[in-house]
Amino acid sequence: MADKPAIVLVHGFWGGAAHWAGVILELQRRGYTDIHAVENPLTSLQNDAARTQQMVKQIDGPVLLVGHSYGGEVITEAGDLPNVVGLVYVAAFAPDAGESAGQISQEHPPAAFSNIAPDSDGYLWIAQDKFKESFAQDLSDEDAFAMAVTQKAPVGSTFGDTVSAPAWKVKPVWYQVSTQDRMIDPDNERRMAARMNPRKTIELDASHASLASQPAAIVDLIDTAVADLAAE
């Protein structure tokens, strides 16, 4: 692959496309010119995968999908399009066929599981006063508070939506583990990464919000993926 692929960034629960701000700016600094960030509705895996595929289909050329958290499940479901050349997982879920994010979490509950609660409309929220310690303990108080207030709550049933045909079985994969993750157990991340047989796995001393606290390291992994693909 002579030219850099388009980068499509896919956010997860409790955040939107703006969670990728640091990564986006770092990609731009490194010469990436075709950068996109999906804004998923977080209403169902089917809806989120469809929204992601809509964006990918608008791009004329190769696409590298990058998913954070539940965004990893989205790219797993949405990533088997002809122009998707690889999948990068950032502290992310990577379910197998028939698995859901909720099932994986229940098998190995993360440290902050008890800080998530539904509202009367069925949306799941992280308690504002617990957001930093749960999701972003390595960010400043100010940045974590802004994330807490602007968190995008998913419909609770989305946690139970299952993957049909995992794209990681047919696409190259790279994975980042957050060793201080309190939203997905780090050992769960290692387990999901290992079974995908990734081209490379990195571990960062980071919270679940590694995309915000260590954007340069995330872009290093994206660079590695792009270089690996270019060498094929």
UniProtKB/TrEMBL annotation:
Gene3D superfamilies: alpha/beta hydrolase (3.40.50.1820). InterPro entries: AB_hydrolase_1, AB_hydrolase_fold, Sec-Metab_Biosynth_Hydrolase. Pfam families: Abhydrolase_6. Residues 7-220 form the AB hydrolase-1 domain. The keyword Hydrolase applies. Keywords: Hydrolase. GO terms for molecular function: hydrolase activity. The lineage of its organism: Bacteria, Bacillati, Actinomycetota, Actinomycetes, Micrococcales. This is Alpha/beta hydrolase. SUPFAM superfamilies: alpha/beta-Hydrolases (SSF53474).
